[in-house]
């Protein structure tokens, strides 16, 4: 049976006069995109332009809500209460939806950003608030979770709220033996060599495992592979991953409806 | 022929730990409400709670977008470009719509806030950006404009974008002879006595005129009367206005679909 | 030997158009004030006006830095790195110092706000970053710590950076048996009856203990007693505390140089 | 008599995760630097690092306050009241001073940013608020004004508040015949060729005139020349300007105490 997989990238993360990422170049190689919603990054003009660019590249668009912390880029934990987080995620989805509607498309999935993504994988109240917000907004939207054991808590929360999930693996990030991502503070948290990232991506797609930092093999059945866009080499990495996957006979395309 | 008119109030203008207005008390006397959208005031939790309270009082809900300037409460001019303003208004409408959908209602009209409201009445580019944003979001939403001559520029912009308008008069604000509102910096910009506000409201509804600060009578055919909610006496004023209008035989109810 | 103690209040916590607290009324009864520095609350105009009001009441002025989180009023934990927190505290001290200089006075102590105050009492890296920032700004400024066991970690950090400390007790907050404050999420976290607060204040000043929520007596030698200003009854509570302390023969006055 | 002139650059304009400019490379060629103060750009960590870098290059440090509008990078007019602006500038100066003190240096001059710089040159109330704030903070700090006729209104405001001024010309910006800068919205507002910028800089230093966009020669006696740092070519431009000035026999050095 032929494997199929999505390649996603977080994008639309500029803010006002500050530009981030080479979105347009990365868009040429990926099949879906997670767009920041104005809380950890982005602004209304950037959101509109990013949706428009994604549409012009034929990408499937996901919302990418994060903690409302511009100064920290959503990468540091913020102890929001469940009701605060529920309302914040709903706010972000609503805001982005105005721009998908403007450009005659729609949000197709939701992927949380940064510290929120990591925290909802391990904290039941956070998992519940995020799942509840997505479900209240549109229960047909799958939510992206960590592939493997690391995503089980969030998968259960999604299921309780009637949501499907998309399992995500990170060929350009290293893993801990327990299947969680190595923290960004770790010196080896990033894999930077395009060919190595591409090789890891093919392994993830074909063998459904991830190599952890200590060399152990961690099971990780993935529906989508993430390429980090806030990286100078992102366009080259995305292209290498796409090429390697196609050469390995993997169907590369937007995420299916999840599981 | 019996007159009918709406009474509206700007509400949902708390922010985080800071509370503003006596929304619930004012809601008992008005028929529509304009809810802040998180840019000049409000936050996701406040937006959700405000929609819920409005629904429970049977009010017609409007979006109340303003300049993205929390520190200035949207009351000082911010020289946004047309594209920036267009995207900002769209962002605000989208964000609020997530909460009207959550509470099984919908946005029924749009009223700009503060300095944006005043500037769009006199500046063609601003009028165009706001009308275009509302029209892109939902061309069936009427937009609130200043009753009388002061609203003509905005009415024309609305019409160019296929929007209907609701003409608004302010019984608790004083007017200049040209039909514009007296600036808030003016010592007599506010009318504070509930009975005087009520009397002005009846005059507006029945005679379709406004008395200017210099005593001249300014024509002002209004579909809706605004009561300012950020005023300690707002509940009392709203109640006096409602009572006086009903005693004068005016039908008080949510705005019709505009003209 | 006669006891002496300071009564402090957190103030200057309005933001733009949003007002908080009855600062001027509370100022009549306290002897020192901790002024917000624009990160969890306050703005430049509020900072200037608050310093001016404090000077006119003869109060000793402290800086009240908090997490840079207006939306959360500095009351939720934000996982700032040590260098981020160090720089943020320094920024806040510098900003406030422009206004103390304008009004011909100076910052006399530093008291952290909300979640930062609580976190620095238990987290070594946070304690170190705050102490280091205060010491870099002006090593002669004492820093306020929790009286009793709860403040020991922070006292050690202060000492490492050459800072003196002022031990603080909270007659209007309840305590856990371990000497920490009961979290605000707890239904009995606040003591609201002015006479009861006053009685607790006298007990703290004379017997150097605090009654915990379970009735146990916790040792708490305090240099200063905090009255929460974001409370409708704050003026009445502050007056009751002042009166009771003076009637009990306690000298009420600004903090000494700490220990 | 030998001419002497300063070369200044606006720097420290990153924000959180968003980087701007090639500060370190430009610092090699300029003699003074204007550092953002956290309102239109920058954050506490960036402010500290920028002061440190400026010190290590032996630059004279100026404060660069702007409108409190991160989303607009301080480049759009914000209608602040005089008291709001006065307090905002003071706040910014105080905040930066904490970092100059940390790194054992001091603020040596003040240059307003973007829309505030332009507005204070033409609006008496704005000129007065800025001059008053600088004078209240430290009356020995010269304030940077537009060279030529365009700076006369601000020079008068500075003199009323006992401040000296540094006259600034912009070799990489084009001028209107009235001596004001061509608005950034104009297609020819920037001069991008390093050799042309260098040639204009030498003309400004030696002949004390500026060529306007229409070819007319505008008198502009300058104490300092600004190189824009938010430009990919800034390091090259700064180096070309420095080299050309030195080859022309001009003494390049930090601003004197102003006039």
Write a compact overview of the structure shown:
The structure is a homotetramer of 259-residue chains. Chain A is 38% helix and 16% strand.
Describe the structure.
- Four copies of one chain form a homotetramer.
- With 259 residues, chain A is an alpha/beta fold.
- Chain A is 38% helix and 16% strand.
- Chain A has helices at 23-27, 44-56, 82-102, 114-122, 124-137, 152-160, 194-207, 234-247, and strands at 4-11, 32-36, 60-64, 109-110, 143-146, 165-169, 209-211, 217-219, 224-227, 251-252.
- In chain A, strands 1, 2, 3, 4, 5, 6, 9 and 10 form an eight-stranded parallel sheet that branches. In chain A, strands 7-8 form a two-stranded antiparallel ribbon.
- In chain A, strand 1 (4-11), helix 1 (23-27) and strand 2 form a beta-alpha-beta unit.
- In chain A, helix 2 (44-56) crosses helix 3, helix 5 crosses helix 6 (152-160) and helix 7 packs across helix 8 (234-247).
- At the B-D interface, loops of B face loops of D.
List its traits.
homotetramer, alpha/beta, TIM Barrel, eight-stranded parallel sheet, two-stranded antiparallel sheet
Which blocks of ≥5 consecutive residues of chain A have pLDDT under 50?
A: none
Chain pair with largest interface:
A-B, 24 and 24 residues
What global shape of chain A is seen? globular
CATH architecture of chain A: Alpha-Beta Barrel
CATH superfamily membership of chain A, which one?
Answer: Glycoside hydrolase/deacetylase
Decide which structural class fits the backbone of chain A.
alpha/beta
Instruction: State the CATH class of chain A.
Output: Alpha Beta
Number of domains of chain A: 1
Q: What is the number of helical segments of chain A per DSSP (H or I, 4+ residues)?
A: 8
